Amino acid sequence: MYEVISNALAELDEDIVLDGVKDLFDKGVPVFDILAALQKGMEEVGKKFEAKEYFLSELIMSADVFKEATGLLGDAFTVNASESLGTVVMGTVKEDIHDIGKDIVVTILKCNGFNVIDLGVDVPYEKFIEAIKEHNPQIIGLSCLLTSAFENMKKTIIAIEEAGLRDGRTILIGGGPTDQKVCDYVRADQVCKNAQEAVETCKKIVGVK
Amino acid sequence: MDNQSLLAERGDRITKAVALEKTDRTPVVLEMAAFTARVENISIAEWGSDSLISAQAMINTFEKVGGADGVDYGSLFPPVLSLLWLSKVKLAGKELPEDSLWQVSESELMTKDDYDRIIAEGYPNWMMSFFQEKIGADVFQKIMAEMEKGAKIQEMWKNKGIPVMQSGITTIPFEYFCGARSFPKFVRDLYKIPDKVQAAMDAALPFMAPQAIQGNIALGNEYIWVGGWRSAGSMLSQPLWDRFVFPYLERVINETIDAGLIPILHFDSDWTRDLERFKVFPKGKCILELDGMTDIFKAKEILGDTMCIMGDVPASLFTLGTPDEVYKYSRKLIEEIGPKGFILHSGCDIPIDAKLENVQAMVAAASGK
Fold first, then answer.
1. Nearest by CB: A54 against B106, B237, B351
2. What is the topology classification, in CATH, of domain A87-205?
3. Bridge partners of B29?
């Protein structure tokens, strides 16, 4: 049955996934095992994305099916979700209100087993600092769509450094106009071109193959 | 040379590039908006308050840059973006500080029920009531009032000898619905209620191009933008793109060509996967304008014999690069994509905080000055 769920999620067949999850949950199968099957399905989706069989639309749909499926697990899912691959603090930087791309990355990371603290949009430097202190993430994700937000991206990173919070963490950036040149300018560690690349990069950072 | 001769010379250079003919040099066209407010030292709130102010700032900036051959558009009234995205636009001096760039606030303004309304009421009726209810009747009135200034703005540019390529944009139902529903919600609709979405798209399609075509012709423009941003191949799987994007684009593009205009396919994001499909359009009748995400060199390889390519100096190079870097990339484009069928251009618009000397370096790469 685990394989059926994984395969159905990989094929975006919502009905089979939901029936399968409900069946296992009703039989008392540990939530951890059900989650593992769902995450294996998400991995397959990621592979199809890399093979250019799937695109952003399928990443969104797979996340949607995942969310529906975990919704069936109720509180049991919340308890198990604390055993995450790692913590990511993420937000769109100050003076930029664009959230679509950032929200997609947040969702896809969550479906792949990360604990993501989403700070929203137009996030002041201090809010990043507070969240890093509170959640101690391995990874910090900064997003922007406006070229005029590059400065605030840079200042956010400087603020993190000045607060003595950069060491031992990786800072990733993403969003429409970001590229290696922007990454160098704002002194981030890496730029991610799309949501799946963000997942693969985060997995690599926390040592998951 | 007087301004009318200059207008003719510049216009002819662009026309020849579009027709894939030999030109005396590579034409270079500027697409610029908020950047001109910075160059002219005007706040974004003031710049965006009146099309005549933005037009004058653009003309002054064009002259400061020097040596270019035309502009994509001759003015911009930022609230007009709400008509294109069917979304609210946050503006400088209102929801944003006085000197901040406007931002489209994409949210779920359109519900699933609106597909039924579009089918039942017809797209124009639905659009009018949707816009007034969800975005604001006052916004609509302001946009209409600004449009009245179109002829005067055309004259301002003509008198300076500068071709304005177009003044009105068209696109496909996908873009409007996607903007109004928000991308993630719209993708779910494509999967869960595809027939209904398609029926609404079919109902809307006949109303996409005619108004923009008429507007451009009335103002004496030879070109028209056909926009695509969320409908790029990188956003959608092949079956979705084949069903919800290309048939609609094909119809809109053909309508603009049939009306005697040259469509500028203003394509943001990555369209590389589907470039081959655009070979169906007649030779020398379209411009493919790329923003740096699509592989422009691949575009040349696939479509170089079909359509003129325009692009794609990246935004980050304009803001963070040096004149030397901009010049080198621009020369690479001219040498590898030109000399025929190429117009040098920024990737999408020149960003607000581009350095003037970087824009001049792009032009110098084409003009040799």
1. B237
2. Rossmann fold (3.40.50)
3. B70
Neighbouring-strand partners of residue B208 = none
Q: What is the pTM of this model?
A: 0.93
Q: For A116-173, write each residue's pLDDT tens digit.
A: 999 999 999 999 999 999 999 999 999 999 998 999 999 999 999 999 999 999 999 9
Sorted by sequence, the CB contacts under 8 Å of residue A206 that are 6+ apart come out as: A85, A86, A138, A139
Angstroms from A134 CA to nearest CA on chain B? 30
Which H or E element spans position A25?
Answer: helix A14-26
Read off the tokens for B301: 């390889």
Domain boundaries, chain A: 2-81, 87-205
CA of B100: which chain A residue's CA is closest? Answer: A95
pLDDT at residue A78 greater than cutoff 70: no
Compare all CA atoms of chain B with the CA of A61 and give the residue at the minimum distance.
B188
The token pair at A148 is 């005029």
pLDDT digits (tens, 9 = 90+) for B227-279: 999 999 999 999 999 999 999 999 999 999 999 999 999 999 999 999 999 99
State whether CATH 1.10.3380.10 applies to domain A2-81. Answer: no
* C-alpha Rg value of chain B to the nearest Å: 20
Which pair of tokens denotes residue A164? 């003595």
ipTM of the prediction:
0.88
Cis amide bond preceding A177, omega within 30: no
- Do domains A2-81 and A87-205 share one topology? The answer is no
Segment B28-52 mean pLDDT: 98
Percent of chain A's residues with pLDDT above 70: 96
Domain boundaries, chain B: 3-367
CA dist B3 and B158 (Å) reads 8
Question: Which tokens hold the place of B369?
Answer: 């000055």
- Residue A40, pLDDT > 60, answer yes
A149-164 pLDDT, tens digit per residue, is 999 999 999 999 999 9
Task: Report, at the CATH architecture level, how domain B3-367 is classified.
Answer: Alpha-Beta Barrel (3.20)
Structural element, H or E, at residue A188: none
Residue of A61, A96, A181 with shortest CB distance to B321: A181
> Of B233, B235, B316, which has the smallest distance from its Cβ to A177's Cβ?
B316
Residue B347 half-sphere exposure, CB side, CA atoms within 13 Å? 24
